[in-house]
Amino acid sequence: MSKKITLLGSTGSIGTQSLDVIRAQGYEVFGLSAHSHVDKILEQIEEFHPKYVCMTNPDAAAKLDAALAGRANAPKLLTGPEGLKELAAMDGPDVVLNSVVGIAGLGASLTAIESGHDLALANKESLVTGGSLVTDAVRENNVKLLPVDSEHSAIFQCLAGEPYSKVERILLTASGGPFRHSTPEELRGVTPEQALRHPRWDMGAKITIDSATMMNKGFEVIEARWLFDVKPEQIEVVVHPESIVHSAVQFEDGAVKAQLGVPDMRVPIQYAFTYPARIPLQSERLDFFTLGTLHFERPDVERFPCLAIAYEALHRGGNMPCVVNAANEVLNLAFRQGRVGFCDISTTIRKVMEQAPFELHPTLDDYFAIDREVRCLTETYL
Ligand code: NDP
Ligand code: MG
């Protein structure tokens, strides 16, 4: 069956892999968005002929506007964060996929949901920062929230046909990142180049650093809490370096269901588009005989404190996960720019958590306000 899709963050790692699925299935593109990559989005416009395009960065938007001038069948151009929300709200697509990076995706997620769209969500920061607002909006508007993150898609697939109330435990797998065996001493000396080399997945820069600190896994714990309505104690992180078991669910009778496969983001992306149906995908098949042995171990929260920080933020609730996210966005970028060391990321987030004002029931405006405040506060430590 043909689908019409709006793809937010189309120039990124998830965005381009989503376009691979769209191309292979012959789906139609209704809208695309990017932030700064004008040449990349121009190529996508030529190939996919969207009706609307949003460029969130104003300088890039001006360049794109000039490049599109006089073209026949040029898409209508929207700009800035308001334009992104306008695009997310527009009638036309069967599903909106949000693969923007960071809290910049939160407004668009909520607008898509409030406009009655099913939302395929890669932008985990939407759930990390505004999890209760997003899941309340999903219930109120009776739309589907379809996980794209590979672990959450795995859990979602394990839960097909199962009542969520029968879940005892979620086993969230983690590759452990490039520094699984590094000593505390070695971790202190980690360079951005080393951290940007992930052993299993080829992803955008921000999530690759989050994977190296294991903040990504911490965020995925928070994401799972909201997606599957479980308590933090019910989510257990299992380090599994081969990344073949994408996650598992243990039910109240002790039965465990897991989803396995060769790592390939197109599988969860396509499942989010076609759910509850499955359709063929040309991808590498898992061969148990060449696979041999799989390994599982406990995460080390002493060496990777970001995982403990995320659990703590989830327990404290309210705006605390949003505080952690904002500090992490600033420190993640500062680390890539060589302005802070690898271990400063977790130690600074802890300091910021102690100083940021706590709010138990924030509104959307409160979340954006605390995000701005924490960014300034974090900068004072750099
Ligand atoms: P990338 O950095 O590769 O892509 C991010 C996309 O968002 C780009 O299209 C970028 O535009 C756009 N963007 C950047 N800043 C803004 C902004 N301020 N406002 C609006 N759009 C913006 O990231 P990934 O594709 O790796 O990740 C996207 C999301 O998916 C993240 O939340 C990540 O955690 C999640 N995810 C990613 C996985 C992966 O394998 N990559 C796996 C699971 C989840 P431009 O290119 O023009 O700058
Ligand atoms: Mg993941």
Per DSSP, what share of the residues sits in E-state strands of 2 or more residues? 5-15%
Task: Give the spatial strand order of the biggest sheet.
Answer: 4-3-2-1-5-6-7
| Main sheet: strands, sense, barrel | 7 strands, parallel
Q: How many DSSP helices?
A: 17
The distinct ligands, each listed once, are: NADPH dihydro-nicotinamide-adenine-dinucleotide phosphate, magnesium ion
Describe this structure in words.
The protein is of the alpha/beta class and 382 residues long. It contains 17 helices and eleven strands. The chain has a seven-stranded parallel β-sheet with strand order 4-3-2-1-5-6-7, with helices on both faces. It has a four-stranded mixed β-sheet with strand order 9-8-10-11, with helices on one face. Helix 2 links the parallel strand 2 and strand 3. The model has no long low-confidence stretch (mean pLDDT 97). The structure holds NADPH dihydro-nicotinamide-adenine-dinucleotide phosphate and magnesium ion.
Supply the key terms.
globular, binds magnesium ion, binds NADPH dihydro-nicotinamide-adenine-dinucleotide phosphate, alpha/beta, 382 residues, seven-stranded parallel β-sheet
